[in-house]
Amino acid sequence: MRSAPKAMVFLDFEATAYTAEMIEFGAAIALLNKNDSYAPLPGTFKRYVTARHEIGRVVKKLTGIDEELLQKEGRPFGEVLADFRKYVGRYWEEARFVLFGDYDIRILQKTAELHKDCEISYIRQIQRNHYDFQRFIGRYIQDQNGNPLSLEHDLEVF
């Protein structure tokens, strides 16, 4: 049986339109206290990832991320992943990685397949210890037709 997590690491990725290759990696950490309260840690993690494939017009419009930005600020995926590991630091082994839906975990997997320069044990740690918040909340909060709400609407409920 897994021990209770001491930290929740909220992850959000942006990806190319056609190949689901990561172009932005975002995260924030909240510590879990013994009384079931939480305390967000100051600071967040945000890095752009150099893409090997075209971003796509729709993604550019939605995110504001374009090839020029990635050329200027993007870093290789392996480097970004190593930076993320340092960001999580001492909470790495006991963290639960929280995602909204299953698309972000697919982005992570696809990007790892495309970029062989990454530490695969970091990918496996995230995969083993991820938690799909959308799946959980979707059991309790739905629209009038029984469909899960969007992240924006879920947050409005809370």
Structural notes for this entry:
The protein is globular, with a radius of gyration of 16 Å. The longest helix has 12 residues, at 77-88. β1 (7-15) and β2 (22-32) form a beta hairpin. Strands 1, 2, 3, 4, 5 and 6 form a 6-stranded mixed beta sheet that branches. It has 7 helices and 6 strands. It is 38% helix and 22% strand. By secondary structure, the chain is of the alpha/beta class.
Task: Report a brief summary of the structure.
With 158 residues, the protein is an alpha/beta fold. It has helices at 57-63, 67-73, 77-88, 103-114, 120-128, 133-138, 151-157; strands at residues 7-15, 22-32, 38-40, 45-48, 95-99, 130-132. It contains seven helices and six strands.
What is this structure's SSE topology?
Blueprint: E1 7-15, E2 22-32, E3 38-40, E4 45-48, H1 57-63, H2 67-73, H3 77-88, E5 95-99, H4 103-114, H5 120-128, E6 130-132, H6 133-138, H7 151-157
Parallel strand pairs: 1-5, 5-6
Antiparallel strand pairs: 1-2, 2-3, 2-4
What brief labels describe this structure?
158 residues; 6-stranded mixed beta sheet; globular; 22% strand; alpha/beta; 6 strands; 7 helices
Helix content: 25-40%
Provide the β-strand percentage band. 15-25%
Number of helices: 7
The largest pleated sheet is described as:
6 strands, mixed
Question: How would you spell out the order of helices and strands?
Answer: EEEEHHHEHHEHH
Total strands: 6
The computed structural class is: alpha/beta
Q: Please compute the radius of gyration using only Cα atoms.
A: 16 Å
Q: Would you identify the regions where 5 or more consecutive residues have pLDDT less than 50?
A: none
Outline: globular
Mean of all residue-level pLDDT scores: 89
- Our measurement of the CA-to-CA distance between the termini, rounded to an integer number of angstroms, reads 30 Å
